Amino acid sequence: MKKNVITAGSCMICACALLAACAPQVTTSVPDVLTVQIAGSETGAASAQAAAGGSPSEPGSVPGTDAAEMRTVTVTAAETVKVAPDMARIVYEITTEDRDAEVCQQKNSETLDAVIAYLKEQGAAEKSIQTSDFSLNPQYEYPGNGRQVLVGYEMDTQLTVSDVPMDQVGELLTGAVSAGVSRIRDVSYYASGYDEAYDQALALAMEMAKEKAEAIAHAGGCQVTDVLSVTESADRQSGRYVDSGISQNLMAKAAAEDSAAEMAVMAGEMEIEAEITVVYRLLPR
Fold this sequence. Notes:
CATH class of the domain at 87-191 and 241-264: Alpha Beta
Structural class: alpha+beta
Radius of gyration: 41 Å
Mean pLDDT: 78
CATH architecture of the domain at 87-191 and 241-264: 2-Layer Sandwich
Strand content: 25-35%
């Protein structure tokens, strides 16, 4: 009869095999290239950043250019182009009064219609006419003893007409008053070729900026190369309209009698300014 004998050595082998089969599998990969960085080394930090695909250059530097060697010059230039205004915008005010609020409003509406009809007869396009700022306010008298007595109502309406040729401004000021306008609130001038004149001012400003940069660079032993950035400093819309200074309080009947002659309007010239800041790169001569 055979006996199976298990020795201590074989038990150990079986136990190890069993544990190996139950243990989780761990996979380790070794990179082909190892980067060793010495703590506190700036060179090592730059090398590690480069190895990671980054750039050791300073923020704002030009790619491919050492920040320590980058030389720039920043200049500001402004130029002005003068043009003669050829268009105008007129703002009228129509005011009516009456003891009854409804009648006051009706009077204002009728006067407004009359003024608009007059403007259209003079060639103003409907899209160039705009009404705004309607207001109806009670009017009081104060006889004393803290008493307040309602005596009527006043209604104001603002009417704006744009794209008025300069040679029609005087006529429209006088004629609209005769049609019922109570007040000329504002007259402003503008040039239909404003955008073209502004572009011209920008081009002249760029030429001036380059001349200034080259003068500075020459004095410093350098030469101007690339334009790194251009910033438009001024608001291009700020000078689009020029206030004429014409503003008059008028009562329609009296004004019609005093304004038989067409108002003289002298627009003069308007200045269109462009201002820029330019950054150039410099290289040694």
